[in-house]
Sequence to fold (187 residues):
Amino acid sequence: MTGPADSFRPLGRGPAFSAANKLERVVWRLTWLLLARFTPPPLAGWRAFLLRLFGARIGAGTRKNGSVRVWLPRHLEIGEGVIVGPGAELYNQGRIAIGPFCVVSQRAFLCASTHRTSDPDFALETRPVALGRGCWVAAEAFVGPGVTMGDGAVLAARAALFEDAEPMGIYRGNPAALIGRRRFEER
Fold:
């Protein structure tokens, strides 16, 4: 007996990435593993140098933990003063741009690609992710493909954001919903 699922050929169209792209990623991963993965926190400049060497645009004063995973550095732009915490994953098959003074906390996941469910082969589709100035993606939160977080937006721990976040908005839940606005205290 056959059904609609029998006619599907997931990935039947062949690889989504060229051999050159695959080789670039293998060289990148080996470089990161051998030269950056186990470096102590004070060597953030060295890690930024390696990312730049592979095409990333990295601002001054950024701190990226050695356990951060970057899929392809040339699709990455990080503004000045950004902190990317331990175990964060920047799955940038498409472009990821992180504005200045953002925090991407431990084990957060930024994903710039998806697959077309209307295609029987589930063709890859890249959609850029952009974080505005001063955003915070809290621990283990997920920012989905094509999402833009406005300046100062906050995504709470373990939340999943699939639509754009308003500037200064605070979001939580799965799917993430706006629960308030940031208001700064007087000092």
Notes: The first strand starts at residue 57 and ends at 58.
